[in-house]
Amino acid sequence: MKYRRLGKTEMNVSVIGIGTWQFGGEWGRQYSQDEADAILDKGRELGINLIDTAECYGDHLSESFIGSYIARRNREDWIIATKFGHHFHENFSRTALFAPQDVVKQLDASLKALKTDYVDLYQFHSGPDQVFDNDDLWTTLDKLKQAGKIRHLGTSIGSNDNLHQTDASAKVNSSVIQVVYNRLDRVPEERVFPSCERQDLGVLARVPLASGYLSGKYKPGATFGSTDVRHHHDAQATLRKLEEVEQIKQTEVPPGVDMASWALAWCLKHPAVTSVIPGCKDPEQVTANAKAAELLG
């Protein structure tokens, strides 16, 4: 495993993290604690130290799996990143909650679920600009940081071209940008990444496998069940993406190289990107993801 400095946080994170949206049950299967433990144990074995989760991956469900795991391990082995701003009702149904008093409650609920007294990175979760621009929100978050409940603040931008929130990072004391970035979606390269580099912001690339389309497992025409979040993607857009993936596989992926590993390494070769946070359904996928570090040279 390789490690990089996460911008001005000065935390050294593994270039491969573990995304845990799947633990919330919106990717076609439900998880048990033992299954979550096996994924996280494999990550630790391979040198991964970054876990990304959110309050709305289930109703703090993903956080609860992580918390139960961490409670039986060494908390200091892990950098835990979670998010705020949404209340989960049921699969694919959420309400935005960005009022300062609601965020205080969300953080306390996240800390309880994670069975820890602090989070390493607390991220504004895909909210609109008018909510982001609420000074009271960031004043409240700064107080929570001073109280020791948060080590660092970050912003998970909803649009991968949200220059407004990225450029305002220094003003609100946000040290990390999380953004959708992958071989099929290179928009951040144009404006967001240059802003991150100017401000010395860490960058977490989410959806680095384009919702699994860049795994190489799916052919054009593939369909997904109603319990899978990809079922809600536009069918024509999905077809176009999978056709593009076929072309990429034939023309860009070296012979004998796993496409998923290649796609993660492709993200990490951009100088602005600190770490990628792919989801993984089982320990075998954690192993495949980790191999991307070997392709960096």
TrEMBL record:
Boundaries of every NADP-dependent oxidoreductase domain copy: 16-294
Enzyme class: oxidoreductase
Signal peptide positions (record): none
EC number of this enzyme: 1.1.1.-
Keywords: Oxidoreductase
InterPro entries reported for this sequence: AKR_Detox_Biosynth, NAD(P)_OxRdtase_dom_sf, NADP_OxRdtase_dom
Gene3D superfamilies: NADP-dependent oxidoreductase domain
A Gene Ontology molecular function term of the record: oxidoreductase activity
A Pfam family reported for this protein in Swiss-Prot or TrEMBL: Aldo_ket_red
Name of the protein: Aldo/keto reductase
Organism phylogeny: Bacteria, Bacillati, Bacillota, Bacilli, Bacillales
